Amino acid sequence: EVYFKNLSKQKQKEVMEKNGNNHKLRVCVATCNRADYSKLAPIMFGIKAEPQFFELDVVVLGSHLIDDYGNTYRMIEQDDFDIHTRLHTIVRGEDEAAMVESVGLALVKLPDVLNRLRPDIMIVHGDRFDALALATSAALMNIRILHIEGGEVSGTIDDSIRHAITKLAHYHVCCTRSAEQHLIAMCEDHDRILLAGCPSYDKLLSAKNKDYMSIIRMWLGEDVKTRDYIVALQHPVTTDIKHSIKMFELTLDALISFNKRTLVLFPNVDAGSKEMVRVMRKKGIEHHPNFRAVKHVPFDQFIQLVAHAGCMIGNSSCGVREVGAFGTPVINLGTRQTGRETGENVLHVRDADTQDKILHALQLQFGKQYPCSKIYGDGNAVPRILKFLKSIDLKEPLQKKFCFPPVKDNISQDIDHILETQSALAVDLGGTNLRVAIVSMKGEIVKKYTQLNPKTYEDRLELILKMCVEAASEAVNVNCRILGVGISTGGRVNPREGIVLHATKLIQEWSSVDLRTPISDALHLPVWVDNDGNCAALAERKFGHGKGIENFVTLITGTGIGGGIVHQHELIHGSSFCAAELGHIVVSLDGPECLCGSQGCIEAYASGIALQREAKKLHDEDLLLVEGMSMKKEEVVSAAHLIQAAKLGNAKADSILKTAGTALGLGVVNILHTMNPSLVILSGVLASHYVNAVKDVISRQALSSVKTVDVVVSNLADPALLGAASLVLDYTTRRIY
């Protein structure tokens, strides 16, 4: 609504005048089943809400009109849509021949309906055989087709049908950037492709806060608790019906053994569904005390059921697409969704050939909570689609144009026909400051926010959320699409769970803190968390000297000493997430005391805190200041004063710095002898002061086989924020299975 209030009314007027005297666009939406209606309904509501621009005609066919599948046309009526035409097009039999006959019957009946309606454009969704009949009829009758969810990849005959509809369609609305690239690779016209996201996400991302317990109790019983039940939805695989029926039988056996309350939805109308229903009845599922078997659940209620389930199991596209919006665990069985992009909440059991495999998957997944995934949408698909519809020029030639190779890279059409920059929200939790930034895929810091880091847990978390919300809102204005949130923090971190296990003394009240859940819930974005040293290494791997290097080590020289180790292109965390605590390598048995409680650590010699300690000692003995230096009374002695004194010839200050450089160098030698990296990167404010000392120690102390290692100073201005961003950017851009 806010978006449309800010739209240019002049542009809309020009489009309508171009289409001829304020001609309203006549849109026909044809829906075939409960699944496609959940995607089409948000668009239909949007069209209906703008009668000054659109006329809507609704055609219902397919399994909507079959009692065995719930007579789901009723939910369209309940949504207050006028159904212009009902077409009975399903030939019963639920086998391959019946599917072909159903397509033929639809082709016989549709021409009369389309002749009467004469729509300007028909909206067709997905990859079902009914949709193929719709697209074929419209294309042959010279009606423009807008295809929703083209370009995606999955298993079964659906893949072929989806791509066939793509070739018939004139305009395309896709949900992911990969799908967009597939459409471009299929020679579709770049200017007729809209990357909008999935329309159902517009409803999903605002659904979880509604009252849900009454819905759960209605479908599963009064005694059921949230996260303590399963939703099962499994369809036949039309290219291997026998195997899919066997897999369904094994799934039911595993669910019976798992002994949790389960809502089982009947399969769709594809070939093999009749046999699957027989399996359900043979095992007594409809009368089993732990099971509730239903033909249909209204989409609004289904959303609540999967959002609060302990697990969803089956092979429905809903499991790998919509359910990710809530972080609910999903077990995807078999090959029906092979190729789909999925969030980390999905566990694939490709070859579910035994009950034990499925049972083991249930034991692994049930009751977990994953970060919310927005791979398939950000909740703003419908405004984009409506604007796209308004931009269609009916005077353009109807004949499709194909863009044959070579294909342009990274061409995208979005809300304003401009490319949104894929970006991350990066959060850096330091001892003094809390920083949030929008970071682009190329490592550019588009916008940065800085506040003092609060002293208490509650205030700190509240400020993080506030700053992230502000940055996410600003991302829209600077044309950035946020893929997730990356957090760099001091202390020991469990990156798998997003929990700070134990903090440094510089950050108070920061142990056993779950950062992932509250931030993911508030922003509806996936969240990654790691130690600041590890983040620095990741920043170097993606943007700095470590790019393309298989084995390297990053050492941060700042207030403390930290680092990260990259081995065979992967970050090493260790068995208890304590790897790369490089500042606590001991280089002297009787050295100064470290903040960790030990003695002789690198950090006790070479950190900013250690240098400040030595500077204070010299200052207290009136041995720090030399000619050319001055200090105000209230000025605090720091490591910078020690460095300045050494540069101006203070022998004692210079000796302290040399000792610090030697200690750091000895630590690096130990790392070389342990990990044998090909590169050592010194990062942080003290790096340039230590690099020559480190090289000198290596030349004197290291084994000849590692003396040739490169030691360089980082050229990254902000490794903590860039590393936090790379947590998101590296992960979200490789989640294509």
Tell me about this structure.
This is Bifunctional UDP-N-acetylglucosamine 2-epimerase/N-acetylmannosamine kinase. This protein has 737 residues and is of the alpha/beta class. The chain has 4 domains: 23-198 and 382-391, 3-Layer(aba) Sandwich (Rossmann fold); 205-365, Rossmann fold (3-Layer(aba) Sandwich), CATH 3.40.50.2000; 412-544, ATPase, nucleotide binding domain (Nucleotidyltransferase, domain 5), CATH 3.30.420; 547-715, Nucleotidyltransferase, domain 5 (2-Layer Sandwich). It is built from 25 helices and 26 strands. The longest helix is centred in the C-terminal third of the chain and has 25 residues, at 651-675. The protein starts with a helix and ends in a 5-residue tail after the last helix. Mean pLDDT is 89; it is low at 1-11 and 407-418.
Question: Could you give a quick summary of the protein structure above?
Answer:
It holds the Pfam family ROK. 39% of the residues lie in helices and 18% in strands.
Major beta sheet, specifics? 7 strands, parallel
Helix/strand class: alpha/beta
The radius of gyration is: 31 Å
Rounded mean pLDDT score: 89
Q: Which stretches are low in confidence, meaning pLDDT under 50 for 5 or more residues running? A: 1-11, 407-418
Specify the overall morphology.
elongated
How many helices? The count is 25
Instruction: Indicate the CATH architecture of the largest domain.
Output: 3-Layer(aba) Sandwich
Q: Which percent bin holds the helix content?
A: 25-40%
**Alpha-carbon distance between the two ends:** 36 Å
Q: How many β-strand runs? A: 26
Classified by CATH, the class of the largest domain is Alpha Beta
Strand order of the largest sheet: 3-2-1-4-5-6-7
What is the CATH superfamily of the largest domain?
Glycogen Phosphorylase B
Per the CATH scheme, the topology name of the largest domain is Rossmann fold
Strand share of the residues? 15-25%
